[in-house]
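Might I ask for a little of your time on a matter of protein folding? The record follows directly beneath this note:
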Amino acid sequence: MNASTIRSQPAHHGESDGGAIAPPDSLRERSGQSSNAGARAIPNETGWSARRAVWRMTLIAPVMAVGTAGVWSLTLLPLPSSLRVSAVNALVTTCSRFLLRALNVRVQMVGRLPSAPMLLAGNHLSWIDILAAKSLWPEAHFIAKEDVARWPVVGRITRAAGTLYVDRARRRDLLRSIPALHESLRSGRSVLLFAEGTTTDGSETLAFKSSLFEGAIRAQVPVLPVTFRANTGAEGAPVSTHVCWWGETSLLAHLPRVAGVRRIEFTVRIGEPITPGTCRKLLARRAHLAVQRAARHSDRS
């Protein structure tokens, strides 16, 4: 199996879905686009160039190969677990920053990221979110759906980087994941949760899945709302199809869409920390409201 076979999985919007990093799920029709819009041919949009896409893909291919080989080598070395995770994270961060520069994705962080450990709860647009987050917070860990662990290459890299996995099909798996998240937060590591449980086309912020917010309550660490937004300019290619990764589009098919865009302004907006309290559902709603407001503010500005 190669990257072209990595596709989105059917949506599970029940509470058993812990709000993890996920391949994009199909969304209902929005703005005249059906959920399988991603499978259509790339339009010749103003702001998108096939020549540019080919050139940038040529630039990033060897970096992706070297980075993958480097991570693979680190997983085979007889290193202490903590040292291996640190080394893998450092390499992944370096590769993420290079890929963003090569794709002309300009990441801007608005607000300050506190030094204390927190559960970062954000919306989810694309795999670019992960690169942007890694470029800004090298030490942050992620929560991913269990099926990501089975992806070729990607699974090995995410596992080596200390990713926490959640099996969304098994409710009881959340009972295992919550203590693991609690332990990670209590040990001083910040963890990023894409709390919608799926990617979207950016037109709205879906309700946050509340289950894994229990980890922040048990650890008594604040939840930090994080909002990801993208802009390609007045004459740029549509963000919904050329930046956001959703529908039935494979990763290999989506990559040239991003690579052909002239410029992507990617904003990561940091909100105010939210005291965990004792109710995970209330905590999730407060985080969702903060991200939703920040997204609307970014779209108006």
User: Anything to note?
Assistant: The chain has a mean pLDDT of 84.
